[in-house]
Amino acid sequence: MQFTDDEREELNEKQIELWEEKAKSGLLKNDSLLTGGLNQLRLDIYSPVEGISQEAAMLSQIGIKTSSNYLDKGKLIFDGTKLREAIDKDPESIFQLFNPSGSTDETKGLTKRLRKTLQDTKNNIEQKAGNTGTLSTNDSFLIGRNLKDVDNQITRFEDRLIQIENRYWRQFTAMEKAIQRMNEQSMYLMQQFGGGM
């Protein structure tokens, strides 16, 4: 978010820096649905596939592993030589590492696991934030219900402000009438005292 010149003048440098840092971090930073989905994807990749050759039951065994540098945030690195050797030695096991449609998560291949995790994460996000592809109302997802509650609060506050404004107008009108009566009495008294001199 950028500030106008007037808004920037009202903020000190530290406030501007903090606000811009917050804006850059984004609304989805540390979102529990996204971090949970990401953690499940990692677990899917690192867990061995049961029911296949133990020499090719995990990506790391065929030359695909994650970077040891934590700044890479789980970047996959592959050793082409080790991967070619594994494919030449047992291509069926490599195929089974990725493809089986097992009955449990442990026996499913990596593509099936990842597809399921991505679909589950997508469904959880749609439950929370809604889906533009379907005709869903605000009542059918969490953020929509929260928006509806905020709209209702705004309406109640606006109604309350109108009541307060009307009360002040009544008080102001009553005060104006009282001042007008005092002015009339003051004029009458001045005429009475001025007329007797």
Structural summary, described in words:
With 197 residues, this protein is mainly alpha-helical. It folds into three domains: 1-28, no CATH class; 31-129, no CATH class; 137-197. The protein contains seven helices and two strands, in the order αααββαααα. The protein has helices at 5-10, 13-25, 32-46, 80-89, 91-98, 110-129, 142-195; strands at 64-66, 76-78. A two-stranded antiparallel sheet has the order 1-2. Helix 3 runs antiparallel to helix 6 and helix 4 (80-89) packs across helix 5.
Provide tags for this entry:
single chain, 197 residues, mainly alpha, 3 domains, 7 helices, elongated, cell projection, cilium
**In which range does the helix fraction lie?**
55-70%
Taking the alpha carbons of the first and last residues, their distance comes to 75 Å
Low-confidence stretches: none
Instruction: Please give the number of β-strands.
Output: 2
Taken together, the total number of domains comes to 3
Report the major sheet: 2 strands, antiparallel
Assess the beta-strand content as a share of residues. under 5%
Helix-strand string: HHHEEHHHH
Rg (C-alpha, Å)? 35 Å
In which order are the strands of the major sheet placed? 1-2
Mean pLDDT: 82
The backbone outline, from C-alpha atoms, is elongated
Name the quaternary structure: single chain
